């Protein structure tokens, strides 16, 4: 079956690609394995030079890359432009910091010398999603390549042009042949790649279902994996919060990338004493968001990436209403061409409703009333996921409680959850395991080799 690039704003087929044949896939695996032996011997200074060139290329071509992302998956153009530039920032971070991160750790023992050195594992397969088609890949590729590993990219099937553009950028920056390759393959071919003895490790960003499938196979094969599998992030607002700032940020946190973000705020937990005021302002803010052609900068929301995602979101909203939720605004797809859905707020969903434990991947917010910090923490943690969390309070004691007790890979106080190359990124529970970004992310695919000289 052909791999097709389809514009979600109008359903137009942009390009079609034939998946790699078994022979062609084997050739790419052989190229990666051969490259891994040589690439690990390149110097950090050479890798840093190529990585800086890569950052420059991305910046120079940011407009073209942004337009490509928007046409393939519907990202509003301003967000696409910002995503491209963030990739350049990530590349520079690792070019500048890899030497410090990978430096041997000297440890004093009874031996004449003992230390830990960090060696690359070899070929790493990245199975990446469509929602941030450049940034998701570069937050894997930059640390992987700087560490001396070789990358294989199995990108989402609806963004093949982005996948090929990334490979071309990396090659043009000077990285050696075979150090990073895109695999245009179907989902049914992934199992064979994971099983191939030349592949040392796998990283996945995607659905819980996909993560479990890959983790099960890789675990059976004793291959290292990192999993980032989505979330249902809480956004908690307490009485001492700056309410105006909290509302403004809440609207942005739910609508970023048309709501198609793992770390977008999805459940809004507001103290009863300020609930009514927050609800009025939040609903007004969501209702004011403008949907339309994502190429036009005045539009806040674009289409959802595929018709299947639109249909799933529609199903979830209907299920929430059936379970007792009340629609305060939106709630329906937008008629006409494209995969558009109205910005939506649902309140009054009973706690414990099964639909409330699902991840809503679109501009749909669930609004809850809570009674104080105890209740907020209990409800925030009542989810299978544990990726990010945001808590709004100026009370120091409450802040410390949220930091200590929220079950998540990150806690942001009085701010919106966001990824940053300098900070570890990942989750717990059904949001996965392992970390991307920062020194922690770079070390995931390194062999911490103990060296003792008697």
SSE topology:
Layout: E1 3-6, E2 13-17, H1 22-39, H2 44-60, H3 62-73, H4 77-102, E3 105-106, E4 113-120, E5 123-127, H5 135-146, E6 150-154, H6 160-172, E7 180-182, H7 187-195, E8 199-205, H8 208-220, E9 224-228, E10 233-237, H9 243-255, E11 265-271, H10 275-287, H11 307-322, E12 326-329, E13 344-347, E14 364-370, H12 372-380, E15 385-386, E16 390-392, H13 396-405, E17 412-413, E18 428-429, E19 432-433, H14 438-443, E20 446-453
Parallel strand pairs: 5-6, 5-8, 6-7, 8-9, 10-11, 10-16, 11-14, 13-14, 16-17
Antiparallel strand pairs: 1-2, 3-4, 4-20, 9-19, 12-13, 15-18
Task: List the keywords.
single chain; 454 residues; alpha/beta; Aldehyde Dehydrogenase, Chain A, domain 1; Aldehyde Dehydrogenase, Chain A, domain 2; 2 domains; seven-stranded mixed sheet; six-stranded mixed sheet; 20 strands; globular
In short:
With 454 residues, this protein is α/β, with parallel strands linked by helices. Helices cover 41% and strands 20% of the residues. The chain starts with a strand and ends with a strand.
Question: Would you give an account of this structure?
Answer:
- The protein is an alpha/beta fold and 454 residues long.
- It has helices at 22-39, 44-60, 62-73, 77-102, 135-146, 160-172, 187-195, 208-220, 243-255, 275-287, 307-322, 372-380, 396-405, 438-443, and strands at 3-6, 13-17, 105-106, 113-120, 123-127, 150-154, 180-182, 199-205, 224-228, 233-237, 265-271, 326-329, 344-347, 364-370, 385-386, 390-392, 412-413, 428-429, 432-433, 446-453.
- It folds into two domains: 3-229 and 431-453, Aldehyde Dehydrogenase, Chain A, domain 1 (3-Layer(aba) Sandwich), CATH 3.40.605.10; 233-419, Aldehyde Dehydrogenase, Chain A, domain 2 (3-Layer(aba) Sandwich), CATH 3.40.309.10.
- The protein is 41% helix and 20% strand.
- Helix 6 (160-172) links the parallel strand 6 (150-154) and strand 7 (180-182).
- The radius of gyration is 23 Å and the shape is globular.
């Amino acid at each position: 079956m052909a791999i097709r690039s389809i514009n979600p704003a109008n359903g137009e087929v942009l390009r079609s690609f034939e998946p790699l044949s078994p022979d062609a896939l084997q050739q790419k695996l052989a190229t990666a394995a051969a490259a891994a032996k040589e690439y690990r011997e390149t110097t950090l200074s050479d890798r840093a030079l190529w990585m800086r060139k890569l950052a420059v290329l991305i910046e120079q071509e940011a407009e073209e890359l942004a337009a490509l992302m928007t046409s393939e998956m519907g990202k509003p153009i301003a967000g696409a432009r910002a995503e491209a530039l963030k990739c350049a920032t990530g590349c520079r971070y690792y070019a500048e910091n890899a030497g410090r991160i990978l430096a041997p750790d000297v440890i004093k023992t009874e031996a004449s010398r003992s230390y830990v050195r960090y060696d690359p594992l070899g070929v790493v397969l990245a199975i990446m999603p469509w929602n941030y088609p450049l940034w998701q890949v570069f937050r894997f590729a930059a640390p992987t390549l700087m560490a001396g590993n070789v990358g294989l990219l199995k990108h989402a099937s609806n963004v093949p042009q982005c996948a090929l553009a990334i490979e071309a950028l990396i090659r043009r920056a000077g990285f050696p042949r075979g150090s990073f390759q895109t695999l245009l393959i179907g989902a049914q071919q992934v199992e064979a790649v994971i099983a191939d003895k030349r592949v040392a490790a796998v990283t996945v960003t995607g659905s819980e279902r996909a993560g479990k499938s890959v983790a099960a196979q890789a675990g059976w094969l004793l291959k290292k994996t990192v999993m980032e599998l989505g979330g249902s992030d809480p956004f908690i607002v307490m009485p001492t919060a700056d309410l105006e700032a909290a509302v403004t940020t809440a609207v942005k946190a739910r609508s970023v990338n048309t709501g198609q973000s793992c770390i977008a705020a999805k459940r809004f937990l507001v103290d009863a004493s300020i609930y009514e005021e927050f609800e009025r302002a939040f609903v007004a803010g969501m209702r004011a968001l403008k949907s339309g052609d994502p190429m036009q900068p005045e539009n806040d929301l674009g289409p959802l990436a595929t018709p299947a995602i639109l249909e799933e979101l529609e199903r979830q909203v209907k299920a929430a209403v059936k379970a007792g939720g009340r629609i305060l605004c939106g709630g329906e797809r937008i008629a006409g061409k494209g995969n558009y859905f109205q910005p939506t707020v649902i309140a009054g969903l009973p706690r414990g409703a099964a639909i409330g434990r699902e991840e809503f991947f679109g501009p749909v917010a669930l609004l809850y009333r809570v009674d104080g910090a105890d209740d907020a923490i209990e409800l925030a943690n009542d989810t299978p996921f544990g990726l990010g969390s945001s808590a709004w309070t100026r009370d120091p004691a409450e802040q410390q409680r949220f930091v200590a007790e929220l079950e998540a890979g990150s806690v942001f106080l009085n701010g919106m959850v966001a990824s940053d190359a300098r900070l570890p990124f990942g989750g717990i529970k059904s949001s996965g395991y392992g970390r991307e970004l920062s020194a922690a992310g770079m070390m995931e695919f390194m062999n911490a080799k103990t060296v003792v000289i008697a």
